[in-house]
């Protein structure tokens, strides 16, 4: 066993000379074997070993005795010890978290604090290969996304250094044998036998059958975990080229915006990987509530025939498709309707901060989409600037009759979420004169002998 662990540590570069190692010890066989093993390396590698233990306060005097037990072992082995008791029940009431989640959160908060206090280089945990197999089987049960089935990492950044799991190459049986050989008396947590918790149920009912089928299951699952992780790191590096085509805000209200056409030119695997990188960026972490079902619905939205569509994701994240533009945002999308009177010589401000000014002009020259010229004969003042209403129509140059404003929006590919706030100008009789920036009423410049009215729109 020693040789296997040494090779594993060397392969993954888990421990270096002269480091400060914080070892998480519960008093059970796995963590006690870890502390004993690290203590054997102490002199050879000039390591500083700090044993840490947490009483979760869930089993009364029993769990407190385990904390004292770990302290006693550390003292006997001439190792530093830092222990604490945490109130899991109060934390559950405060946050609504489950028992296991609350215990884990408080435990890791303490580990992080100790790492900072002692200048730790490494936080060592006693998870073994059977734990890894359990974790991955649970992940497979909950999800079909490959990136969700990676198991526990061999190492990752943590606090002032990194977190390591040097025993993932071993089975539970290996560690029990190690304890027996070295005559290590450990404590057994009876709560591990309760099947109310999912992991314990897997451990008791699922894993024994799988281990019967393949006694080396823990090795195979660990190798699979490492390969999946390597593959995912490569895919993420390739997916960076997808993200480079996107607009990503780093302001208080983060959003991501991209061209649908450009996005769909990339291979599907990169599209999916980029999607999850986007989620990590927007949420700050990958949340479990975003399932493969959300992913499938999103990709159906992107490939569907509807040019305007929306999708609600957890925590208030919206996906908005507007023709070629796709936006992921937490911003509220409530529409602002408005109606404002506009008199000659005045400037009004619209809800988005843009303005429209009305003035008399000596020139009847049309200066583009954002200016409107009309002879006064064809309008009845005051003018009205408002958002559209059902049934709005405008008479356009070059066509008989009139055309629905709704159809103009569709023809011009105006995103659905912008249509409800788009300004249009009517006279006091309700005739639509100008769909700002898009189309103008045909009669407005037919009588060149009139006095000219000019409207100027500024974003």
TrEMBL record:
<comment type="function">
    <text>Ligates lysine onto the cytidine present at position 34 of the AUA codon-specific tRNA(Ile) that contains the anticodon CAU, in an ATP-dependent manner. Cytidine is converted to lysidine, thus changing the amino acid specificity of the tRNA from methionine to isoleucine.</text>
</comment>
<keyword id="KW-0819">tRNA processing</keyword>
<keyword id="KW-0067">ATP-binding</keyword>
<dbReference type="InterPro" id="IPR011063">
    <property type="entry name" value="TilS/TtcA_N"/>
</dbReference>
<dbReference type="Pfam" id="PF11734">
    <property type="entry name" value="TilS_C"/>
</dbReference>
<keyword id="KW-0963">Cytoplasm</keyword>
<keyword id="KW-0436">Ligase</keyword>
<feature type="binding site">
    <location>
        <begin position="26"/>
        <end position="31"/>
    </location>
    <ligand>
        <name>ATP</name>
    </ligand>
</feature>
<dbReference type="InterPro" id="IPR012795">
    <property type="entry name" value="tRNA_Ile_lys_synt_N"/>
</dbReference>
<dbReference type="GO" id="GO:0032267">
    <property type="term" value="F:tRNA(Ile)-lysidine synthase activity"/>
</dbReference>
<protein>
    <recommendedName>
        <fullName>tRNA(Ile)-lysidine synthase</fullName>
        <ecNumber>6.3.4.19</ecNumber>
    </recommendedName>
</protein>
<dbReference type="InterPro" id="IPR012796">
    <property type="entry name" value="Lysidine-tRNA-synth_C"/>
</dbReference>
<dbReference type="Pfam" id="PF01171">
    <property type="entry name" value="ATP_bind_3"/>
</dbReference>
<keyword id="KW-0547">Nucleotide-binding</keyword>
<dbReference type="InterPro" id="IPR014729">
    <property type="entry name" value="Rossmann-like_a/b/a_fold"/>
</dbReference>
<comment type="similarity">
    <text>Belongs to the tRNA(Ile)-lysidine synthase family.</text>
</comment>
<feature type="domain" description="Lysidine-tRNA(Ile) synthetase C-terminal">
    <location>
        <begin position="383"/>
        <end position="455"/>
    </location>
</feature>
<dbReference type="InterPro" id="IPR012094">
    <property type="entry name" value="tRNA_Ile_lys_synt"/>
</dbReference>
């Amino acid at each position: 066993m020693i040789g296997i662990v040494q090779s594993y540590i060397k392969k993954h570069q888990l421990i270096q000379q002269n480091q400060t190692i914080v070892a998480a010890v519960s008093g059970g066989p796995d963590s006690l074997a870890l502390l004993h093993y690290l203590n054997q390396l102490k002199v050879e590698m000039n390591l500083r070993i700090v044993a840490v233990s947490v009483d979760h306060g869930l089993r009364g005097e029993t769990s407190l005795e385990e904390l004292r037990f770990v302290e006693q072992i550390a003292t006997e082995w001439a190792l530093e010890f830092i222990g604490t008791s945490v109130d899991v029940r109060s934390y559950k009431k405060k946050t609504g978290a489950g028992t296991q989640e609350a215990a884990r959160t408080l435990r890791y908060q303490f580990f992080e604090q100790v790492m900072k206090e002692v200048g730790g280089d490494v936080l060592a945990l006693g998870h073994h290969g059977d734990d890894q197999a359990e974790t991955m089987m649970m992940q497979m049960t909950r999800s079909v996304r490959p990136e969700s089935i990676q198991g526990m990492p061999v190492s990752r950044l943590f606090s002032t250094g990194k977190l390591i799991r040097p025993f993932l190459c071993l089975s539970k049986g290996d560690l029990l044998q190690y304890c027996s050989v070295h005559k290590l008396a450990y404590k057994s947590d009876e709560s591990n036998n309760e099947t109310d918790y999912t992991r314990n149920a897997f451990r008791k009912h699922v894993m024994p059958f799988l281990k019967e089928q393949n006694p080396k299951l823990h090795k195979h699952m660990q190798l699979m975990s490492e390969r999946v992780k390597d593959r995912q790191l490569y895919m993420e590096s390739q997916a960076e080229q997808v993200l480079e085509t996107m607009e990503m805000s780093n302001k208080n209200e983060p959003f991501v915006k991209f061209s649908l056409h450009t996005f769909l030119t990339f291979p599907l695997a990169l599209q999916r990987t980029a999607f999850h990188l986007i989620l990590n960026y927007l949420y700050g972490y990958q949340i479990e509530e975003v399932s493969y079902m959300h992913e499938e619905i999103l990709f159906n939205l992107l490939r569907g025939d509807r040019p305007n569509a929306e999708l609600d994701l957890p925590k208030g994240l919206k996906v908005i498709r507007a023709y070629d533009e796709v936006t992921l945002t937490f911003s509220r999308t409530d529409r602002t309707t408005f109606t404002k009177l506009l008199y000659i010589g005045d400037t009004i401000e619209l809800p988005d901060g843009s303005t429209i000014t009305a003035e008399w002009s000596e020139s009847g020259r049309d200066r583009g989409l954002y200016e409107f010229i009309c002879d006064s004969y064809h309008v009845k003042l005051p003018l009205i600037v408002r958002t559209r209403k059902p049934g709005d129509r405008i008479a356009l140059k070059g066509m008989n009759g009139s055309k629905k404003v709704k159809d103009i929006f569709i023809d011009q590919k105006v995103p659905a979420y912008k249509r409800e706030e788009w300004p249009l100008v009517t006279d006091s009789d309700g005739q639509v004169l100008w769909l700002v920036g898009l189309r103008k009423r045909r009669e407005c410049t037919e009588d060149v002998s009139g006095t000219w009215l000019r409207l100027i729109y500024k974003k």
